[in-house]
Structure formats: C-alpha cells, structure tokens
Amino acid sequence: MRSELHWRPIAGFIGLDLITYLVLYLLVLPPLEPAARAADPILMEATSYVLTAVRIGFIGAIVARWVRTKHGLMTRSEAIPTIVVAAGLSWLIQMALNFFIDLAMGGLAWDWAYLLALLQWVSFGLVGALFVSPGPSESEDDVIPFRFSARSERGAASLFLVPTIAILVGASLAVIVIMGSATNSRRAADTAADAAALAAGKVWKDTLHGKFSAALSAGDGHDFWGLVGTSLSYGLPYNAMQSAASDYAQRNDSEVVGFSVDERRAAVTVQVRHASDSTGETEYRTSMAESSLAFHSGLCNEWGTIGYKIDGVCVTSSPEDEAEDDSNDESDGEDPGDDEEDESFELPTGLSDWNVSVVLTDAG
Fold first, then answer.
1. Sequence-separated (6 or more) residues with CB below 8 Å from residue 163
2. Of 84, 27, 17, which is closest to residue 54 (Cα–Cα)?
C-alpha cells in the first residue's frame, strides 16, 4: 500500500472549502438571517452542522476522485493522508482568518468549538472519500475530476454517497437535538435559579433601603442610631422574598424546592426544579443559585449586624452610648440639671450615600 501526499488535490480541497464557505455564508445565508433569528438556537446550531457535513463530505469525495483519476487509488486508505492534511490545512487557514477578524474587532478568545471544527473537517472529509471506489489512474488526457465520459466509471459510487451522507447527517442531527434539548433544560433550570435568587435578594435590599431612608429622615439621634447594632434578620421580609423567588422561577417554567437565608453573609440560596418532556417522558432537573447583598456604602454588614459606613469604617454602635458611659465614669456628683440641653440632631459627617447591590455569588 502506498500512502503519498498529493499536493494538487490538497490545494483543490482548500480552494473548494474557501469558495463554498464564502458562497454559503456571504451570499446564500445572509438573506435568511431575519428568519434565523426567530428560530430555535439549537435548531440553528444543528443546521450549521448539517451544512458543514454535506459541504465537507462532497469536497472530500471530489478530492478522492481527483487522486484516483491522476494517481490511481488501489485502496481507499491511500487517500487518507491527502484528505487529513488537506482538511487540517483548510481548518488552519479558516482559524487564521477568524483570528485576524477577532483581532480587528478588538478581542481574542479561545473557544473549544475550534477543536470540534477540526474534527468535523477531517471526519466528514474522510467519510466523503470512503465512497469513492478504488481503481487505477485513467488516461493522461482525461485527468480533470469533473469531466465524465461514457466509458468511465466515475459517478457510479456517487449514487451511494448522497444517501449515506444523508443518513450520517440525520444521525448527527438526532444526537445534536437530543443533546441540545438536555442542554436547553439545564440552561432553563440554571436561568430560573439565578432569576429567583436575584429576585429574593432585591426584596431584601429594598427593605434595607427603606430602613436607611427612614433613619436619614429621623428627627433625633435616638431614632437615627437605633438602626445600627440590629441584626440583618430583624424584620427580614422572608415571605416576600420567597414569594418573589417563586414568581421568577414560575416565569421560567420551574418551581422553588429549597430556600434559605444566611444573615451573617447577607446571602440567599434558592434551589429550583425544572420539568421537561423532550424525550416523551417528564424529566426533572434541579439547579441551585446564591445571591448576596454587596454593601458598598450607606449601610454595612458586620457578620449579620447592621452598621453605618462612615468615613470608610463600618460603625455598628451609637457614639451617644459611648458618651454616656464616659459621662457616668467621670461624674462626681454634679447636678445633671446644670447640663446644657442637647443641640438639634445632625447627621454624622462622613456618612456615605446608599449603595447596596445584589450580586450572584454562586450561579446555577
């Protein structure tokens, strides 16, 4: 068995790949883009695989026929090195084009789909080559792979090429749809868990914002400082938070099956269950997500205790309490009635504005 590289067929593979790619994705598909946007993403991804399989499969068959016509093909395996090298070089050229496009758009990112594309280029090219019947080279005057004559056998094997690739593509499409449905179900469960956790956290944040606003409008220091030192769980709108989580889970066709609050970390954990019947039977997928309150300014959290952010420091106790302790220690029997009346209350300097956000600390 002789396994040689034939560079003219390799160049032909690369040229046909680039030409068909440009024609398909620059001329044929762009007019269909509005309809594609409304289609299911999984279906569109599967369609992309089908187009790649058909395109590369026929290119592989044409190149293998080229090798047989010019050099002879005693066994199909003799075309494997040429097809593999041609597919690898063609993939490398397209990846280089993608690299320069990403570079021009200002971002570079590795995607494991690139390796999957290499596998597609090689495997579908080999599948197309397998359906070219072996045989000796033909006359030197008739070496063009697209020219057919009555005495030539070329084209006979192509009758089996179309249905075989169709079967292969159909099987691949079935696998993609099944895997895509599972991926969709998992993504839906994750989305529902994330939305539910964020919704519950927002209710908690809004409640704290109301308390902070009420403290700012207080007329005396006792009401203002009465908020600090209290627990984050005090007055926690637990039922409202759970109701918001359930509402957002239902919007994503899921239900809340677990709900918990950690006041020390100001975190909410939600577990949801999503039902799907993609395989004809109802299957359930669960997902868990956690959101937490990020205290940037205004209020702060000291392991479950509310404080004010003053001059960048979390203050969890009233300075009036400290002043009373000091006055009691230094008191030597003076008449308290001689003390001057308290001046009108003013907000402490350095108190920062409200800035508390809800973030996903553990996405589904």
1. none
2. 17
Phi and psi at 121, nearest 5°, equal: -60, -45
Under 8 Å between Cβ of 306 and 316? yes
**What pTM does this model have?**
0.53
Q: How far is CA 344 from CA 140, 217, 228, in A?
A: 108, 13, 20
Per the listing, tokens 């090195």 go with: 81
Distance CA 98, CA 49 (A): 18
3-state secondary structure of 333: coil
User: Which pair of tokens denotes residue 91?
Assistant: 């993939």
Q: At what angle do helices 158-216 and 238-251 cross, to 10 degrees?
A: 160
| Span 110-130, pLDDT tens digits | 666 778 888 888 988 888 888
Q: Encode pLDDT of 180-213 as tens digits.
A: 566 677 788 888 999 999 999 999 999 999 999 9
Residues 84 and 56: their CA atoms lie apart, in Å, by 12
Would you say 255 and 195 are in contact if contact means Cβ atoms under 8 Å apart? Answer: no
Provide the H-helix boundaries in 23-79. Answer: 33-38, 41-71
Token pair belonging to 117: 């594309």
